[in-house]
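Weekly structure sync, notes
Attendees: PL (lead), two postdocs, one rotation student
Agenda item 3: pending single-chain targets
PL asked that the sequence for the first pending target be pasted directly into the notes so everyone works from the same version. It is reproduced below exactly as submitted, 183 residues in total.
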Amino acid sequence: MSTTVLGTRLAYAGRVFRVEVDRVRIEPHGAELDMEIVRHSGSVVLVPMPSPDSLVLVRQYRHAIARWIWELPAGRMEAGEQEEAAAKRECEEEIGFSPERLERLAELYPTPGFCDERMVFYRASDLRAPAEAPIQDPDEHLEPVAMSLTEVGALLESGEIVDMKTITGLWLIGVSTRPPAGR
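Predicted structure, written out during the meeting:
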């Protein structure tokens, strides 16, 4: 199957993403239809590890699901920003430490059915206080907490960790406790 884009129109442009509607022709049968696509500049997800048996999670209120959750620090890449620079910036902004070492773990598309966001996962280690005090984004109130991998596994098992990027990041470093079903 292939598609031919016949035209594109902007449906919405916001601070974090924009929505485009592509008019496409689906081959080989020739059907034409509109396909909505969320365009996103991409993001980095950090697995900050102060030591081999601990990591830093942030507790954050997420308005879309109306609750506080534990998650890995992450953030959007700015236009033209290199992945590693974004990872260092987000680490400083979200947990207050700068990584001396970044290890690229994976590059994944969380929702390719309707969004082109690409998430790049990094293990961040050898954490140091940054030269300048970090400034959080105005829409964020983050509570970073360093904890053992055992404590992280317990949060996952209890259903306190519910977002897919965090569960994926934990899986990438070998924390494989399964979250509870149907929470």
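Discussion points:
- The helical segments are 83-95, 149-158, 164-172.
- Residues 43-172 form a domain with the Nucleoside Triphosphate Pyrophosphohydrolase fold (CATH 3.90.79.10).
Action: rotation student to compare against the earlier draft before next sync.
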